[in-house]
Amino acid sequence: MSSPCDPQHAPVGDVSGALMMIDSQLKAVYDGKTRPDAEQRELVHQFAASLGPEGIDDLLDGACTLVYMYMQWLRRAYESHDKDVIEYVVPSLVGSMRAMTRSIRPEAVPTMAGLLAAAGSGLSPSLWRRQYGDWTPHEMTSLEATVFLLADHVNRLTEDRDFATRLVSDALAKAEAP
User: Fold this and answer.
1) pTM score
2) Which long-range contacts (CB under 8 A, 24 or more apart) does 145-148 make?
3) Is the pLDDT higher at 140 or at 2?
4) Which residues contact residue 37 at a Cβ distance below 8 angstroms, ignoring those fewer than 6 apart?
5) Is the pLDDT of residue 38 over 70?
């Protein structure tokens, strides 16, 4: 029986834009910057402002697609070692989110945990979240942090700082190939 949250029914969104934002954050952290500099924050703000409401929705869907892609890659990686992705990834990321009290409000953590569990179970994070109404501003920041933490988890697992970005870039290139 097909679920209304099946990924085949989900919008892909602006995966490239979401990946660009996450990749720039990863690079900043890996370069030792604990906070993005003023220039980077301004560029991200200008980029988001240029999108408009529909573009922001596409960026949110793109971020959810990244969550799905990373959780599916992690699911396969953990299953190859007879481990469950939800058991090994979700608690770790939730713990990290709970420690990020300046960026993530406590009430957004359960939503992000649900988003991760949905993606780890093979459901579309976008469609799973949509059933609860519109995104709140606090959830947008939390979603960004969730994608960042997932990408970092993938990079740490592979011991390659660019693996998560390359994983998605390669998938995008294959999808666009004739």
Assistant:
1) 0.90
2) 145/97, 145/100, 145/103, 145/104, 145/112, 146/67, 146/93, 146/97, 146/112, 146/115, 146/116, 147/18, 147/22, 147/63, 147/66, 147/67, 147/70, 148/22, 148/25, 148/26
3) 140
4) 28
5) no
